[in-house]
Amino acid sequence: MSLKIIVKKEGKPGKFDRVNKQKSMNMRKMLLASSLIIMGLCNAQKKQEGLKGTWFATAQFGYQSTNDGSENGKSSSTTILPLAGYFVGPSTAVGIAVGNIGVKSTNQFADNVTLKTNLLVVEPLARKYWNIHGGLFFFGQLAAPIISGKTKVTANGQAVPDSDIKVNQFGLALSGGLDYVMSKHFTVEFSYNLANLSYTTIKNYPGTTKDIKTTDFSLAHVATVTPDYNQAVLGPNGNAISTLSFGFKFLF
Asked: Above 80 in pLDDT, residue 54?
């Protein structure tokens, strides 16, 4: 009895093998092309959405000191105004600023008279951004500031009874600025007040029996309350909120 060992030699791939190999290569090419298309669409969509869905936060901190030229007349103010916002579109944002302005004035209103003012500021706003080049953007902002508070009067170190001056102001403020993107989560911005419209009511102002109501419109300037009150509390050329603002903005 004999045992035969049969060894099968591999020859050239048959037609069926070549067809399968070609189909496999075509499939890989299709998958690669599909991946590239999907990535391109995702990038385009991401670019189109811009900053939509992004939160941002910044704050205005300020200190102002003025002197009326006399030996004792002076005024100082401190501003703390945090701001938070949200991009509702690729280049459109809404936000709100809530803060406080504290002012101390000595001998501005009268000799040996000190005025201490505490103002609450609430400022809803909307912004629109336009790209200039690279990371540099121009933005326009429309805000509706609401300022409310009172001034306490002290004479010769003693509080004057029933002398609190109450102030309420609301209006519209238009400003423009530049915003430079330093990194994904950090920008530097500069803005300037362009126009301001305000309506103010002052109650219990010394020397008056009725409320003082003032409408003020100004260009490239922050609206004042009334000239006398503004000078008495904030000093000559003093303003509650600075016309010029510079700060840092955080994106998250």
From this structure: yes
